[in-house]
Design goal:
By secondary structure, this protein is of the alpha/beta class. The chain is 53% helix and 15% strand. The protein starts with a strand and ends with a helix. Bound molecules: adenosine monophosphate (AMP).
Length: 216
């Protein structure tokens, strides 16, 4: 099974990927996490992409494609969830071509939709673990007491200025990807409003339907 999770920043793609991992054993390929790891490790790629990420802009398509393709190949073209990739129509074309060449097309693109006010609230209260990239929300899912508080940080691109820029970028460059996959006939729209559990149930219901079809 191969799925892509799509939606604006703060839609809960990473959280839903985790739920899908628990239910179906699918691994998450998050280009955001791959990029943050490259920045933290100070690799060549990390140095090249740092300023784009911190300002809330998208990283150039070619660089993200190489990271994503490498990770998809490592997963042997199956049993993965793409989280945050593709994010431009160019990337969407590339991933479709890449997967088609290996006879491993995406089964579904799950699009989580939510209003801007919810996005801003979620991102302003989001914190992550520096090393594991585990995501928390100060109110709804605070970091557990046994986690070293010095490891809990706010992502630079979750600062208000960067959030505004990311929402803008999403509207201009990423939202058209939804239409691309609608035309491909694999888009599934799910409301991203509500509790993690509620959204998770909606996503699981959708995935279960086509998981059954795949087996039948
Ligand atoms: P995320 O953790 O998915 O919110 O990604 C964090 C940041 O990494 C984004 O704001 C972009 O700067 C960069 N990034 C992640 N995925 C992509 C992508 N598919 N295309 C371009 N930039 C990306």
């Amino acid at each position: 099974m191969r799925i892509a999770l799509f939606g604006p920043p703060g839609a809960g793609k990473g959280t839903q990927a985790k739920i899908l991992n628990e239910h179906f054993g699918l691994d998450t390929i998050s280009t955001g996490n791959l990029i943050r790891t490259a920045i933290r490790e100070g690799s060549d790629l990390g140095d090249r992409v740092k300023s784009f990420v911190h300002m809330g802009n998208l990283v150039p398509d070619e660089l993200v494609r190489d990271l994503a393709n490498e990770s998809i190949a490592k997963h042997k073209f199956d049993r993965f969830i793409l989280d945050g990739y593709p994010r431009t129509v160019t990337q969407a074309h590339w991933v479709q071509e890449f997967l088609a060449a290996y006879k491993a097309p995406l089964d579904a693109v799950i699009s989580l939709s939510l209003p801007d006010s919810v996005i801003v609230d979620r991102l302003s209260k989001r914190r992550i673990h520096k090393l594991t990239c585990e995501s928390y929300h100060l109110e709804y899912h605070p970091p557990p007491a046994d986690v070293d508080p010095t490891m809990i940080i706010r992502r630079k691109d979750d600062a208000p200025e960067a959030v505004r820029s990311r929402i803008e970028t999403y509207r201009e460059q990423t939202h058209p990807v939804e239409e691309f996959f609608r035309r491909e006939g694999i888009l599934i729209e799910v409301s991203g409003v509500g509790s993690v559990q509620d959204i998770g149930n909606r996503v699981l219901k959708q995935v279960e339907q086509f998981a059954e079809l795949a087996i039948a």
